[in-house]
Design brief:
By secondary structure, the chain is an alpha/beta fold. It has a single domain (about 1-70), classed as Rossmann fold, CATH 3.40.50.1000. The chain is built from four helices and three strands. A three-stranded parallel beta sheet has the order 1-2-3, sandwiched between helices. α2 links the parallel β1 (about 15-20) and β2. The longest helix is centred in the C-terminal third of the chain and has 10 residues, at about 60-70. It is globular and about 30 Å long.
Length: about 70
């Protein structure tokens, strides 16, 4: 699905973020060349998310916005 959206919207994977709360979000993002952020709220477990090794682990919406702004 990510690959399809990237192509349909003509997005550059290197400048696109995959932000999710599950390990599959991180692995899917990485498999498609996206920058990844794991958020520690939602349905995924912290341990599984950490084991997936996202580019960043974020604990709040404010922290997420600050991180994306700093790394845009």
């Amino acid at each position: 699905m990510l690959r399809s959206v990237l192509a349909q919207e003509a997005l550059d994977p290197a400048s696109t973020w995959m932000i999710g709360d599950r390990a599959a979000d991180v692995t899917g993002g990485r498999a498609n060349g996206l920058r990844t952020i794991g958020v520690r709220w939602g349905y995924g477990s912290d341990d599984a998310l950490r084991d997936a090794e996202p580019g960043a682990g974020i604990g709040s919406m404010t922290e997420l916005l600050d991180h994306v702004r700093a790394h845009a």
